[in-house]
Specification:
The protein has about 750 residues and is an all-beta fold. Helix content is about 0%, strand content about 45%. Strands 1-6-5-4-3 form a five-stranded antiparallel β-sheet, with no helix packed on it. The N terminus is likely disordered.
Length: about 750
């Protein structure tokens, strides 16, 4: 049984009305029955795919199709080339239904009526299906002679060719229903050394045949018009040579054909019928390399496309269009932007598989208008645009770069493959981008363009850095390789979220190093760690501003003021401490006075949460060696609570560094270097105090600065950066989470673009 897709009632009715408006009274348009779901011959079991959702109103909806094979009184046969073979479908213009036919090795032929034919696989039986009565059983024609080759169908007559190259003999046979001489007829009027090239049914009773003969001294090519009722040639003419199989057409008044002396030199010619092929041939169009030119005749018009199947081509051409040329007054009319195939209808019009930028892909009916000029009307739509389109966008509204190892895949689906372009995502605030370019291919079908984003962005002249949180714009730009339609430009927006990390001033979860040079300019280096480089590195030095030489102490203190970004404190030479609140873009808001009297302290460090309240705290040692704890409040106006003394004896250390949690507990920790160059770990207890110290090791006296930078290598543990007298003497120490051995062996530490000219790093 056939399984069919039925068009929606209003769309089907509108579609038939449209066809009737063009061909009122013709056999192609019969009354619509929107609820009809007819069955068909047994063995046809696959259902047609659903109609495209965006098929236009007033047009029948059909699945995707590559070419049109033939047209009958109440429908048409179309074929779609796929990776698994060719799918044939019959669409009824009477009911609006599309029926997918069972796959056959031989495919299906149409013969100018509602009858279609196929050969049963691995059998000598041929089936004639009457698609006007799909519930009826097929007529079976047995043709066991394996010397004959099946070539097509005319009406209900199967066309076979025979050939014996050694004897230089051949012919055509018409085999129909029934038994006896009348059902198997040899076509009369063909030469004995006939060699078949191609054929096309012109109507239910006429076919057009192209053949060649080889007389030993020359090969000659012929066109023949065959009357099926009498099984005889009624007219033929000799034509020029062709280096390949080319197209031809016939009407009541003319014949048209393609000649090709070479693959690069082809011509479309025509001649008036009559005179047994002696009427003069006229060159109509220089086709160049149009090897597969399709030719049709419509009254005084030749309709043709020199380069069919343009939708998959990878070059532009002015010869993709389906064009009509009037052979009398030489006018031309562009009917479609491209076409693959065209077939005649029983009422003298054409059905063309093609597309226009205005109405998209589908089957167009080309007929002469009231003024005698051909016009194209879309009668069946695949719902696919002829212009290059984005048919799907898969970009989440929010991309969380703290997941999937900081990666995300964004996707866009193009309506076809043959396009070149770029897809760009841009951080709105910084203008930094990530981009992918792509080139086209001649593959058919839709194409998915993926941007496998590694969470990095770059700008001209800069190294890649981790993408900040915030607002982003995506831009999709594509150019059709075949030149059909405008360039595609689409855009949209999305947001990125990230957790602000320790020492993060750019809202991208990666730590930043701050440094001041001898002239008082403050710089920022964003730390990057990717799988392609074995250690973290600076993505580039960014100038924050000048005038920072007025301070004798600068310290990164984490989030003190309540915003997600990290802050810093600066002590001037009069002992006043100032707060610079981070803005999350790598810069700082104007300073806020914290208070005076801070010149009693010789060392200040911050950034660790020492009392487990989720806020950063501050530690300071005075000149007597006492260590004081300042609880962070999260209030920019009053960022610290009253100081609490932790203990004495801290004067033995020449550097204190808050490093966050490196010992494996949840509390923040502290490392301290004594004057002998030994580094000690003070593990935080989570209440503002520390466990007894643990020796990390000696030899740390060669470093100028020790900075607790947070998670520089993105392994989930905090790390330490030891700044030497230059980049080559600076080292990166990855945290282990082990109190007894809190750091891995030193690795290269190019986290500062150049550490030589700076006098403070924090």
């Amino acid at each position: 049984m056939f399984h069919v897709r039925v068009a929606a009632r209003h769309r089907l009715a509108a579609a038939v009305t449209t066809v009737l408006a063009v061909t009122a009274g013709t056999a192609l348009t019969t009354a619509a029955h929107a609820n009809a779901a007819p069955t068909a011959p047994a063995g046809v079991v696959r259902a047609a795919s659903a109609a495209p959702a965006d098929a236009q109103d007033a047009v029948i909806s059909i699945p995707a199709t590559t070419r049109i094979v033939g047209a009958g009184q109440s429908g048409f046969l179309a074929a779609e080339a796929t990776d698994t073979g060719t799918t044939f479908r019959w669409t009824s213009t009477a009911t609006g239904t599309t029926t997918e036919l069972p796959k056959r090795y031989s495919g299906y032929y149409a013969g100018g009526t509602d009858t279609i034919a196929t050969n049963e696989d691995a059998k000598t039986s041929y089936l004639l299906h009457d698609m006007a009565s799909p519930g009826s059983a097929p007529k079976v024609i047995e043709q066991p002679d394996t010397r004959l080759r099946w070539r097509g169908l005319v009406g209900r007559q199967l066309v076979f060719s025979s050939g014996d190259t050694s004897a230089e003999q051949g012919g055509l046979r018409l085999i129909g229903e029934g038994i006896g001489a009348g059902s198997d007829r040899k076509v009369k009027g063909l030469p004995a050394n006939f060699q078949f090239q191609n054929m096309e049914p012109v109507s239910a009773t006429t076919m057009f045949v192209r053949y060649l003969v080889d007389d030993g001294d020359a090969t000659r090519f012929y066109l023949a018009v065959v009357d099926v009722e009498t099984a005889s040639v009624v007219e033929q003419r000799e034509v020029g040579p062709a280096t390949h199989v080319v197209d031809s057409a016939v009407s009541a008044g003319r014949v048209a054909w393609v000649e090709g002396a070479s693959t690069a030199k082809n011509e479309l010619k025509y001649a008036d019928r009559g005179g047994e092929g002696t009427t003069p041939a006229v060159k109509a169009v220089d086709l160049g390399n149009g090897l597969r030119t399709h030719v049709s005749i419509l009254g005084d018009w030749l309709a043709y496309t020199p380069l069919p199947y343009a939708q998959n081509e990878q070059f532009p051409s002015d010869r993709f269009a389906f064009t009509a040329l009037n052979v009398v007054d030489k006018r031309t009319v562009k009917l479609l932007d491209h076409a693959t195939t065209a077939v005649p209808t029983p009422d003298g019009a054409l059905l063309v598989r093609g597309g226009t930028l205005a109405q998209g892909e589908g089957i167009y009916r080309v007929a002469l208008g009231a003024d005698g000029t051909p016009t194209a009307t879309l009668v069946a739509s695949t719902g696919i645009a002829t212009a290059l389109k984005l048919v799907k966008t898969d970009v989440p509204a929010v991309v969380d770069l703290d997941k999937n190892d900081g990666t995300a895949t964004l996707s866009w689906t193009l309506s076809r493959y043959n396009a070149n372009g770029t897809v760009t995502i841009r951080h709105n605030r910084t203008g930094k981008t990530a981009q992918r370019t792509f080139t086209g291919a001649s593959t058919s079908g839709t194409r998915v363009i993926d941007l496998a984003w590694n969470g990095l962005l770059s700008s001209p002249g800069d190294s890649s850095s981790f993408a900040p949180a915030g607002d982003y714009t995506w831009e999709f730009d594509a150019k059709p390789q075949n030149g059909i339609g405008p360039d595609l430009k689409e855009s949209g927006t999305f947001k990125v979220t990230r957790t602000t990390g320790l020492h993060d001033y750019t809202d991208n979860s990666s730590p930043d190093l701050l440094s001041r040079d001898a002239s008082g300019v403050l710089w920022r280096d964003d730390v990057v760690n990717t799988s392609s480089v074995p250690f973290p590195y600076s993505s580039g030095r960014v100038k924050i501003g000048g005038g920072w030489q007025i301070y004798d102490q600068l310290e990164a203190v984490g989030n003190l003021a309540g915003s997600p970004a990290g802050d810093l404190v600066a002590r001037d030479k009069t002992g006043v401490l100032w707060l610079y609140q981070g803005k999350g873009d790598g810069g700082f808001a104007g300073r806020t006075k914290i208070g005076g009297g801070w010149n009693t302290y010789n060392k200040i460090t911050g950034g660790s949460d020492l009392d487990s309240d989720g806020r950063s705290d501050l530690l300071a040692t005075d000149t007597t060696g006492a260590l004081w704890f300042y609880k962070g409040t999260g209030n920019a106006a009053s960022p610290f609570g009253a100081r609490v003394k932790v203990g004495g004896g801290w004067g033995i250390f020449n550097q204190l560094t808050a490093v966050g949690n490196i010992a494996g507990t949840t509390a923040g920790d502290l490392v301290a270097r004594d004057t002998a160059g030994v580094l000690w770990l003070y593990e935080g207890r989570g209440n503002g105090t520390f466990a007894p110290r643990t020796k990390i090791g000696g030899g740390w006296g060669s470093f100028v600065h020790l900075v607790g930078i947070g998670d520089g290598d993105r392994d989930g543990r905090n790390d330490l950066y030891a700044v030497g007298s230059s980049v080559s003497f600076s080292k990166f120490y990855a945290g282990t989470g082990d109190t007894k051995s809190p750091f891995k062996p030193a690795a290269s530490g190019a986290l500062l673009w150049n550490s030589a000219p700076v006098n403070q790093v924090f």
